[in-house]
Specification:
- The protein contains five helices and 17 strands.
- The radius of gyration is 22 Å and the shape is globular.
- The chain has 287 residues and is of the alpha+beta class.
- The longest helix is centred in the C-terminal third of the chain and has 11 residues.
Amino acid sequence: MFIPPMLLETSERAFTDDRYIFEPKFDGHRAILSCTGGQTKLYTRHNNECTRQYPELLSVPFTEDMILDGEIVCIDPAGAVDFEAVMTRFQARRNDTINRLMGQLPATYVVFDILMYRGEDLRGLPLMQRKEILATASLPTNGHITVCPFIEAAGEALYDDICARHMEGIVCKRMDSTYVSRRAPSWQKVINWTYVDVWVTGFRKDEFGWLVSVEDGAGRLRPAGVIEFGPNRDHKREFYRVANSLKSGEDRNNVYLHPFIRAKVKTRNWTKAAMLRDPVFVEFLRS
């Protein structure tokens, strides 16, 4: 049984509030785990079943019916959460590949909510009551399922600690919040953004996207990603007014520009291939 997950609104800054609890935000992919009628299945937030990609999560059977909400993550040997690793796991389809990756990139399911338990719908209960039920629920002890820690009130302190550990951010949840299958202000996220200055060196011809580059160690520019989000109508108008005089070439998909336009972007992190992960435009930089 799939239940659409409750989604997070965005807070621009961390805060301290005794009406809230605060959790670390794990950099993986959201998953609903459903154990009903003797069948256990995993679903993405978009209702795509992904049970077979993570056999280690279900290596020990559930003994009671329940529906859980959580995040599937991969943790590297240094203890850091590895987003690219969990995406590799999610995209695996062949049984031999899944079995090999299970050993190389083991997954963990971090549970932060319980939506149904022993046939009872818990979504109308306050969050803290659901947390109490989750703490006593019979979760399998297979080493791959764990309950998300949280603290009360001290969101700013947790955020500072999360930033020091180079983690993704925090989640802020009203203690009295019920569970609704939509985006709601009672659940918010605060992202630990990395800010980077880039050169805009091209743009896509069809769908929107600005190609960006950064300087390498020798002072040369190298491609670093594509801005798809952030600029408003005025930013786009200003960009294309200047870009038309900067064209240096084109191909089937892109127009390339001489490096003249600089911008600041925010990104969740750098990929292992030294690319910006989902860069978001912040502002143009003036020379």
